[in-house]
Prior knowledge:
This protein is 31% helix and 25% strand. It has 569 residues and is an alpha/beta fold. Strand 11, helix 7 (203-216) and strand 12 form a beta-alpha-beta unit. Helix 7 (203-216) crosses helix 8 (237-246) and helix 14 (376-388) crosses helix 15 (407-413). Bound molecules: S-adenosyl-L-homocysteine. S-adenosyl-L-homocysteine binds next to helix 16, strand 24 and strand 26.
Amino acid sequence: MIGLISATAAGAVARDRLAAAWPDRTRVYDGPVGDAVRRAFAECEQLVCFLATGAVVRLIAPLLGDKAGDPGVVCVDEGGRFAVALVGGHGGGANELARETGELLGAEPVVTTATDAVGLPGLDLLGLPVEGDVAGVSRALLDGEPVALRAEVAWPLPPLRAGAEGAYAIRVTDRLVEPAEREVVLRPPSLVVGVGASRGAPVEEVLGLVERVLGEAGLSRASLAELATVDAKAGEPGIVEAAARLGVPLVAHCAERLAAVEVPNPSDAPLAAVGTPSVAEAAALVRGGELLVPKRKSQRPDGRPAMATCAVVRRPGRGRLAVVGLGPGARDLLTPRARAELQRASVLVGLDQYVDQIRDLLRPGTRVVESGLGAEEERARTAVEEAREGRAVALIGSGDAGVYAMASPALAEARDDIDVVGVPGVTAALAAAAVLGAPLGHDHASVSLSDLHTPWEVIERRVRAAAEADFVVTFYNPRSRGRDWQLPEALAILAGHRGPTTPVGVVRNASRPDESVRLTTLGALDPATVDMMTVVTVGNTATREVAGRMVTPRGYRWQERPGTREGTE
Length: 569
Ligand code: SAH
């Protein structure tokens, strides 16, 4: 809950805007300001105070405890010009709240915590459990003091500006170690615990076994990635509940697959019961890795036979390949998720002109592998190879990276040994459609006219099919200096099925500074005005020009009112 406190009429207006925008997240604290702040501080996770920072500092000073437990506090000035993250920037989420509040009120967010300000990842924001001297090591990283990176477990980290030696250290481990002074310990999700249990095994027995085995092996619970078992036990309440209490997913594998895994301690009992000679060891090992703890049995307080078994595996480190679409060009059409992935990567792979488009967003220390036009296969291979080395890689493409772009050559190379994350982008057809009006209001197709990768006969067949089926068609790669006859041919095929007054939109450099838009017709389009920076969208037989915009009605409209087809045939 976010507590809202104001003192003046102007403050109350801004406060009410926030309360109206976030009705479920906010609570207004009325009455004398000092009292309101104290109550909100005790009851809420976050506060937005429409008060001077000085007043708030004095009021909360006696209430402050520690960074982890205190609420995040944001102050908004009387004029509504600034939203200041006062305390709890990271832990209390005040930085993020200042940004959100600023966006809503049109105020400038003021964020002063160092790591956020200069684009270094906050060590506590990597998505991994972290222990130790986060503030000290973050400050050292920021000040450029040497920080040693000691990775005992492979994990795809973002660039951290850390080297081999240093007075400060970042340790990446799943072992149960106490962070030393000036050290942070990051816990990658590297451990898989395979579990087996007989019917009705109590959750305490399963959970107790897992925790005891991890503890005795000197392994950290914070690095537990998942529990794994056999299909037949996927609904066993003791196992399901143990996973829930540990806060990890339960992954089930089929018995045939487990039976094929070579294990040190097979036995006959599970073979008869569920069809595999090993559950715990096989489920832990099925996706590879190193067996750290072979099968162990639970101990029952009443001395009766054990009902649960488990085994622990350290899974192989997996690299991370993010395939990121940058959108058509404009910075505000780059999605927040794409931006986050660009900053998550330690290696960026892409065409030089696209790299230039986002270079300012990269974190210091990001390694950039750029290449020129045409080197597609090589770029795809490089990206996959870098990820297989265990790194965090972003492979970028304009528009959507999966549309006539890098995603398919990359994933055709990739095997099951890396994690792949796709981030969709606004593809050229959509960027162009938005400036043209609503040309894609009904069924549509995209066709690339580049016959570098596809024989012309295939392209021609597809254009013909689209023409016959009356699809709105967007041509990508429509025309280049050495490739000028394909567009006229494709247009001629469409003209065989739709009239010369059919609207055609020609959009060059959509969303880029030199964007240009032309609305013409199938009969009047001069192909010589089209180049490789352009998409051409040809309407179907129902598409019309309305007030200078290109509009394709939804199908049911013209079926109800056949008159709307006039003039297009
Ligand atoms: N992955 C890209 C397409 C790559 S193919 C996407 O999803 O948009 C390259 C072709 O896309 C260009 O020849 C051009 O036809 C089209 N294109 C890409 N960006 C464009 C833009 N901003 N404006 C107009 N056309 C564009």
